[in-house]
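Hi support team,

I'm opening this ticket because the web form for multi-chain structure prediction keeps timing out on my end. I have pasted the exact lines I submitted so you can reproduce it. The total is 762 residues across two entries, so I didn't expect it to be a heavy job. Is there a limit I'm missing, or should I split the entries? Thanks in advance, R.K.
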Amino acid sequence: MEPNTLKLGTDQQPELHEHSQDAPLAIHDMTVAYHRKPVLWDVDLDVPEGKLIGIVGPNGAGKSTLIKAVMELVPKASGRVMIYGKPYRKQRHLVGYVPQRESVDWDFPVSALDVVAMGRYGRIGWFRPVRKADRDAAMEALDRVGMAEFARRQISQLSGGQQQRVFLARALVQDARLYMMDEPFAAVDAATEQAIVRILHDLRGRGRTVLVVHHDLQTVPEYFDHVILLNMRVVAHGPVSEVFTPENLQKTYGGRLTLLDEAGEALRRGGGKP
Amino acid sequence: MSGRQSGDQGAERRRDRGPCKRAAGLAVLLLLAIGTPLMGAGSITDNSMELPGSREIWQVMTLRDYNTRVVVLGTASLGLAAGMIGTFMLLRKRALLGDALSHATLPGIAIAFILMASHGGDGKHLGGLLLGAAATGLLGVGCILLIRRFTRLKEDAALGIVLSVFFGLGVALLGVIQKMGTGSAAGLESFIYGKTASMLASDARIIGVTALVVAVACALLFKEFTLLCFDPAYARTGGWPVVLLDLTLMTFVTAVTVIGLQAVGLILIIAMLIIPPAAARFWTERLLWMLVLSALIGALSGMIGAAASALVPRMPAGAIIVVTASLLFTVSLLFGTSRGALRRWSQRRELNRKIERQNLLRAVYELTEDGLRGDVSTASLMGKRAWTPRELARLMRLAVREGSAVDLPGGMLRLTEDGADEARRLVRNHRLWEMYLITHADVAASHVDRDADAIEHVLGREMVSKLERALEEKQQSAVPRSPHTIGE
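Hello R.K., no limit was hit. The queue was backed up. Here is the completed structure from your submission:
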């Protein structure tokens, strides 16, 4: 799709900073643009193995774009991306993707099990049908997200959270090493939230790396080990305990948080007066 | 259109009477098949308008007559192929693209005619005409994709522009051809409305081979097309060549459109691509069945349409095929077992009944909740809800009949053991759900059947016990305990 950037990338050593060769994900000076307007500038980071990593930032900060660019769903203007030391197109089987729930038409005539089985299509290969072994694997993945009893249901007859869990199961059935999840916690019910957290811990326990686009600042320290603070550029990234600080959040959310703070301050003062 | 007869009445050509052999295999590719030399179409219409007698109907229905057999088999295979590939086209949300495609075939037909005639050949060589049709059809689709990609115009605008411009160009070119004065030019208009009766055995064979190729392709690529239609972005992350798959799909749509031009015409062919899958969707929630049903509906429409036009001379088969298909569509819309109107209506009625019944049980339970286990009077029930005396009387009768309550003299009602269990479960579920909505109003659990789905399964056991505690704190009266062990 963008052969020049990829070819240029393969044998050039980055000058700015040393990237580890076998990191699950290494992004080198990546810039992404939509309609001539850059949405991500010079993203340069390594993702450590076996961690749960939250990607946090305001609306329009390019969170989804970041993971879409890594998976070559949107073209890069410049830079390159390495998955375990090789370009994405050679490592697809190692990457599991959980798209946003709104990205598909849930009226489609398939069951929950059918959707999860799509996670096995790559392994099945061209022209071959889905077999019993694939359906069994899909069933097992549905069971892991607590959805086994809904396997036969047409997908529009599931609640929003249940649909989200179907997408999660589809990624799980791939048995990838690196997972990319686009807002899996958006507008889900409590059971789904618990199921996702449980699955995330389970994945980490098995040494998998998970990147999660997330919008709820409150739950970041609880859910994630690492955090990437993003606002069209990487403001900060690293362990939550070091990076998830008021100063960094201020830099990420800028005026918006300030406004909130001021409003809160005003309320407090107003409330304190007799 | 004009009442003009096909131009080659004078020279009735010998029909290809060879046996309608099955295609040797898939090696016979589509373009090859289209390129097969064909002599022009002969007219078999006679001018009488008598209604068919029973003997004629019998002959047609049993496919005794050779010509009828050819036409019926041809249109049936066309319907089958269109129904199958149309299913994926519909699910890919490309229905209108198919319409633009079919209209864009007209200039191709005209250009092919001009080229062939000006090189001294037979301007109406069918293979050449269809190749031209396919070429401008694909060009039209290409224009739409380019307009969408490189301008900010929306898809509907791009479709409208291409459809009308290409069709207009085609009509203009037909005008030019008439001015050219080649005698055999007449009859090209039949591609607009279709002329099933002029179908030859060799045409039927082409349609049959194409139908076979489309059917085999849909079977082989079932999984790939499903993924393409449901979630193309996910398909791309998995390394599936989405553009190539899209192209394959549209190529098959083009093939079906082109072979259908002669039989149904370019205005109506889109109906054969869209109506059968749309009708099939009312009967099933499974894609495989939708595909099979759509193929059957398409084939049936093709058969009936062709048979009817064989029985009644001058009856345009294309129009009858479409009318038949839309009749089947209407039946599906009304009576479809999965999404039909009747089924939806009865489901809503059932739901209303269920809610009414639950309202009664809950009302009785709540009236007797504070330890006064006993009988409830009609008057106190009337005060509980805004129901009319007649409604209440009907609900009470139903409750007695199903055994959840017993009627006592003096307009009193008492719950049976089963009825009380059921009522306790209902009240508990409703109170927990209400508590949930109060405490977690930001994430409403949509699409949840509050009674069929045990609350533990939707919200998780932890959340339920949290809700139970919250409810106990709020009310003096505890939540009725679940009659089942939690999480069973």
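A quick check on our side: DSSP finds twelve helices and ten strands in chain A. Let us know if the file doesn't open in your viewer.
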